[in-house]
Amino acid sequence: MVDVEGALAFKVHRTARLLRRHLAGVTQAIAAELTPEQWFALNRLRRRGPISQVELTDAALDDRPNITRMLTGLEQQGLVRRHKDPEDGRRHTVQLTAKGTRIHDAIAERIPQVRQDVLKGIAARDLEAAHRVLDRLKDNLIRIG
């Protein structure tokens, strides 16, 4: 019999779900309908400025259909605007609205405390090792498809 609950994949999955639930509480306390995934998109837009819709997708997950639905929700909330690229009508450029910037910044102010709470008791070297292991797992999974 396989001990699924003791498996690394199970622990990673369970931890990811707990992290998502915690972040959802943070985002939704500021913007009731904002999901963690939408927060990540807002954050990428805030850091990189107006970018193409394709640049918002996660190449490893090929989440183009999901990004379209996500952006529709963000547009409906008034947090982003999409514009057709004047040079290529098939492409869309996405940018934060003033409201999107305010919501992003309000959540971003809480992130240092969230990190402190979540990472409490984890030594820096252990955190660095976790990053290396997760990066290797991601690379292996992409390689094997």
Give a description of the structure:
The chain is mainly alpha-helical. The protein has five helices and three strands; from the N terminus they run H-H-E-H-E-E-H-H. The chain has helices at residues 8-30, 36-48, 64-76, 98-118, 124-144, and strands spanning 51-52, 80-85, 88-96. Strands 1-3-2 form a three-stranded antiparallel β-sheet. A hairpin with a 2-residue loop joins strand 2 (80-85) and strand 3 (88-96). Helix 2 packs across helix 4 (98-118).
List keywords for this structure.
145 residues, 5 helices, globular, mainly alpha, three-stranded antiparallel sheet
Number of strands: 3
In percent, how much strand structure appears in the residues? 5-15%
Instruction: Write down the overall mean pLDDT.
Output: 91
Q: What Rg, in angstroms, do the CA atoms define?
A: 18 Å
SSE order:
HHEHEEHH
Shape: globular
Strand order of the largest sheet: 1-3-2
Q: Cα distance, first to last residue?
A: 27 Å
- Largest beta sheet, briefly? 3 strands, antiparallel
* Fraction of residues in H or I helices: 55-70%
Low-confidence runs: none
SSE class: mainly alpha
Count of DSSP H/I helices: 5
